[in-house]
Structures
1.
Amino acid sequence: MFIGREQELRFFEDKYNAPGGQLVVLYGRRRIGKTELLHEFAKGKPHVFYSCREITDGQQLAAFSERLLNADSPAAKYISVFADWEAAFKAFRQSIVQASPQAKTVASSAQPKENARKKPVQAASGRKRSSQ
């Protein structure tokens, strides 16, 4: 059951319904419901949810391609991995447009729980700080 977060959901709906494309970056401490918020927002909307992993860019593209091509993409008849990220996102958009020319899309990416380890990150001052 999803409770609360009406303000955040309203923010996402406003961005979703705004003219043109929108990019929203959602970040915060782990275990506060970011992924669940994205799942709740995406309900009933054309979307693909992909969880990033700590792998090389080529492996990430292959995994993302597999996720898109499993989502009934017309490109699945011809390829198994997209040549680059631009091709992958063009195919994603094209599959949505074919389904509904006026549709907007939701693409979300999240770091999976098993990779959400505490790691040092570079702070603005140049000192290392914890990512949690």
2.
Amino acid sequence: MIFIYEKIGNWSVSKSVGLRFFSVLLLHTISETLLQVVFPDIEAAFYDHSEVQAIMLYVLRHYHFLADVDRSFRKTLRSLAFMPKLDMLTTIDRFYDADHELLQKLFLFEENFPSGDYSDPSIVAVLREVGLRGVEDVEPEDLLESAATIQQLYGSAVGNSSRMKQLVDKSDALLEYLHRHKSRLRAICSGTDKTLATAMADICWVRSLATRPVCYPQSVRWHGGSHVFFKPSEMVVRASINLVGSVQPVVAAEIYAEVSMQFGWDQTPALDNIVAHLANVVSSYDPRDKVLFMEMSRSIYTELSAHDSAVVAGLLNRHDILMDWIWHGDGFTRPSRMVVTPPFTDLRPYVYSLPTEMSVFADFFTSFGVPAVCDVLQVSVAVSGFDPITRTSCRPLRIGHTRLTYSYHLNRKDPPQCSHCDCALTVKNVLLDCDYYRATRQRFFNVSTLKELFDTVSARDVLGFIRDVGLYRLI
């Protein structure tokens, strides 16, 4: 009892609390008093936080003595909310063992470890025995909170290299943990009907690859840069670098198959992103990286050829620079200057034959107008720019008399209306005004009057536009 009196004298508790505790000790053993009186008083918030800490530090320092007296002591202590976290008292099993390096990085900037006097190694050893969580015990909700913490602190870390490095370490640790415990991604987060992977998909926490890999052409835009973290739903893995490296962030880490599947990184990037990347590749060609451009083009064509050519054509039309988009061996050209079978003589740069490395895409390119063989007319058009067929075909457009817009006179009907914009269907409406054809029109020309059109735009481009909007047979 002298030992107990000495300890009570050291507690920073109010006089009434000390007297109450002292009087009870006269009637019960220490363990019984703790279990039957003190612990219930803690649960009932009879003591303030500093008093609780003083009591519980004493309990923890003498844990083994107390646990030997009563076998239920450990179980009761494990369920007792006495450890401070975010201005609240919570149970031991809401904290993690800081002895594990991965957990230290994973929970940076979070109150998930014993702190203050509870972080003393001798106290931590007891807490570990009673119920601290280990590396195998991390709950999905805590992983989700770690991701949210990265997103929350990212803005304030910009310009602070030390803080940013800590967030990078936290992000890498989170991804490493998910690689080691893949099943967590399929777990349902409490309070929601979402899996952890789904809940994390729209949080900005995954580190992107900042510098382009050696297999990526130096002249092509790289999406990496000053922005460090992105949402998983916005990103691709390294296998997709050749497809969208200039328009989508790439995950910095190597990703295991199951993790990739959970975040949707095993799926092919969106087709419009692939075409946008192709536009960047075409406009950035540098012959010094010819082999890299060839490999990148092959990767892109492989994906494009898996889709309907009409859908691909519609996306190509959105980019003015994609007139020349077919690899010819040392750069890019347009379908009208490419043939599948090599011509009778070398006609470069007027006509190119499909390179051997691209022969697997012959059918795909043919659907965009690449002929199987080169004929004399194609050569004359490529060399001189004169095409008697297009010149003749453009005449009805020049004078405004086409079957589409003028046949109503012969049939004695009312003037036709444009089905897209409810305006009078005229040559000018089709060539210049109708918004429905704007995307296709901008691929071939950008003028404001018919005079400017026929004076400055080639007949081939005028008819190319008419063909692409499906009106060529109605001229």
3.
Amino acid sequence: MVMATALCTTAFAAKGQDGDVSAGHAFAREACKACHMVEAEENAPRMIAIGPAFRDIAMSPASVRRAESVAQISAARPTPAIPKSQFARIRAWVNYGMTAAQVAAVYGVAVEVIERILSQS
């Protein structure tokens, strides 16, 4: 609704310019410069850098070492039960690149528990 109002207002304001190119250019500079290049000498619009893929982060040596150390520590503790409702999420994480040790660290269980869940179909 707000966008439609803004477009209608802009259209009527532009119609009222009576061919004044400099007024139209000034309007474009103000209204469009956030996303578009209006002046020839301006820099290109901002580009958003995309970070590394989750798989690359999850498989980095530091992430794997951290998950394995947490999993080893948690293996000594009593293992909490993971509800069946979480099994699909665990499989999805592994499909996306997490190791069994990393998933075990999330749930605070031994790696063997996650491996057993993964072996069930």
4.
Amino acid sequence: MKKIIYLFCIIVFIAFVYFMQKPANKTKEQMSTSVAKTSSAQQGGLDLTISSPTSGAVVALTEIVVKGKVNPRANVIVNDEDIKLSIDGTFEKKLPIDEGDNYISVVAYDDLGNSAERELLITRTISGI
């Protein structure tokens, strides 16, 4: 029985790693499809909420702060960087924003193999144009 559980854990880990690898440059159509797939409040047993920014926002800022909340025992990655959670599961990450479309990926996962992902599209415009 222990071997079966061990094998199951390995398969889940391999699947997690496989699905975490995604193309760096997605088209707007691919992004729209991906956002639609992840719009539910809860996926895979984790409730990942992004309070700001809103996907599709158009800004003139050079940086934004991604804010959200997840189960305090989860791990969070924003654009491939591990984020430290507050004791209540909230998190913040300041990100630079380039001119044009900026894709932000937020992934949460726990030790039980549950995961959730949100993808945001933020567009920076040059102020005054």
